[in-house]
Amino acid sequence: MTNKLNYMNKIWKITFAVIVAVSLTACGSGAKDKNGELGDMKVKLEKLKKEKNGLDAQIRQVEEQIAKADPASAQTLKLVSVSTLTTQDFSHFIELQGKIDADQIAYVSPPGAPGIVKAIYVQNGSRVSKGQILAKLDDAIARQMVISAQQTVGQLKARLIQAQTVYQRRQNLWKENIGTEIEVINAKADVDALASQVRAAESGVSSAQEQLSQTNVTAQISGVIERVNVKVGETFVGMAGNTPQIMIVNNSNLKMTANVPENYISRVKKGDSVQVVINETGKPYRSVIYNVGSAIDATNRSFIAEAKLPSDALLKPNQLATIRILDYKAKAAVTVPLNVVQTDEKGKYVYIIEKSGDKMIARKKPVVVGESYNAITEIKSGLTGTETIITEGYQTVYDGQSVATAK
Questions:
Q1: Which residue of 19, 194, 305, 391 is surrounded by the most CB atoms within 10 Å?
Q2: Are the C-beta atoms of residues 349 and 364 closer than 8 Å to each other?
Q3: Which secondary structure element, helix H or strand E, spans residue 223, and what is its range?
């Protein structure tokens, strides 16, 4: 027992030396170069750690010897909690913030030139069909142009009829050898010229009617009127600054859009399964990525990923959501709680329980870890999935220590 106390005193001295060394590194100053001093401290710290590991091993040996020589004086068993491992399917998701968008959002603009609003036929929430008239712009000038063009056509047609009559008479007289041939030719030229003018005038009518029709503001898509931000008497230009004066949204064709950091470029691809989680709806939506951007945004170093969403009255464009992209999965994987995986200079390890006679012994097991998600870590090698792992008290046990499990 005296040997054990001596070893414990030595450990306390080493621990105190480590604390002093770290304190001097953080707070000390003097003539010695700080970088050199820090290097010395690190070397000394590593040396002390090695000495401590050696002492731990010696202490365990002495404890075992004491337990054999004097079972009554054996130390109290370390109390731990354990869990029996099993294999299970493991999935890893990339979680990103994004927003709901619509493939069909129309910012309505005037078909022609901006104009004064004469009438508005819809309001917020109105359901409209493609081509439906939403508003009427002042059409007084356009109507006058149509009337004028139509009058011109009428006048030219009357002159054409007269010219055709003259031409017919000239032809009849010429057949009876009355008059001259040049008179027939001139009459025919008059008919052709007037016919050309009539066609041009009729084209003018069509153009004037087209301009008149452009005073009708129509819906480019079917959907619901999301915004009407213009009144009768105001000028309709389509966009007032950055705000659309009339906006239509088709909620039957929604999608989830997220900016994916470029470091995931090899892990996110078209066809990947996704879960879209929206707090307001209280349920996840399953989908697949149907579009992956082909360029990296120079500002935020990301690319676009898009997934279709089902039609749902609770889903709204610009609504914030979380998208979980399935980028890795493994069948019958060995998994452990993330927090039980510890690290030392040799790598990752966990503590398991092994039976030795009627005792339970803590054993340190080096492991190779895979992906981690939702506080679970995949173990690629080092465990078979049948072990009993220490889930509480693992921070204070050592390899070979006798333990007892909490009931």
A1: 305
A2: yes
A3: strand 223-228
Angle among Cα 125, 129, 134 to the nearest 5 degrees reads 65
Per-residue pLDDT at 17 exceeds 70: no
Whole-number CA gyration radius for the chain: 44
Model confidence pLDDT, tens digit, residues 187-203: 999 999 999 999 999 99
Classify 319 as helix, strand or coil: coil
pLDDT at site 361: 92
Boundaries of every domain in the chain: 2-71, 74-92+333-405, 94-105+249-330, 107-137+216-248, 139-214
Alpha carbon distance, N-terminus to C-terminus of the chain: 31
Query: Phi-psi region for residue 131, left (φ > 0), alpha (ψ -120 to 50) or beta?
Result: left
Q: Would you state the structure tokens that stand for residue 73, as one six-digit string?
A: 């004086």
| Token pair listed for 344 | 């030392």
Which pair of structure tokens corresponds to residue 395?
């921070």
What is the model's pLDDT at position 20? 45
Which CATH number is 94-105+249-330's, of 3.40.190.10, 2.60.120.10, 3.10.20.30, 2.40.30.170? 2.40.30.170
State the pLDDT confidence band at 46, using cuts at 50, 70 and 90: confident
Single-letter residue type at 50: K
How many Cβ atoms are within 10 Å of 128's Cβ, its own excluded?
20
Pairing of strands 127-128, 223-228: antiparallel
Contact 179, 173 (CB under 8 A): yes
Task: Give the tens place of pLDDT for each residue, 84-102.
Answer: 999 999 999 999 999 998 8
Q: What predicted TM-score, i.e. pTM, was given to this entire model? A: 0.57
CB 127 within 8 A of CB 290: no
What is the residue-averaged pLDDT of the chain?
A: 85
Of the candidates 224, 251, 260, which has an alpha carbon nearest to the alpha carbon of residue 318? 251
Closest CA to 216 of 76, 120, 145: 120
- Is 48 in a helix, a strand, or coil? helix
CA distance 323 to 97: 6
Q: What is the distance, to the nearest Å, from the Cα of residue 71 to the centroid of all Cα atoms in its chain?
A: 63
CATH of the structural domain 74-92+333-405, one choice from 2.40.420.20, 3.10.310.70, 3.40.50.1980, 3.90.930.50: 2.40.420.20
Overall average pLDDT of the 305-332 stretch? 90
Question: Alpha carbon 51 to chain centroid distance?
Answer: 51
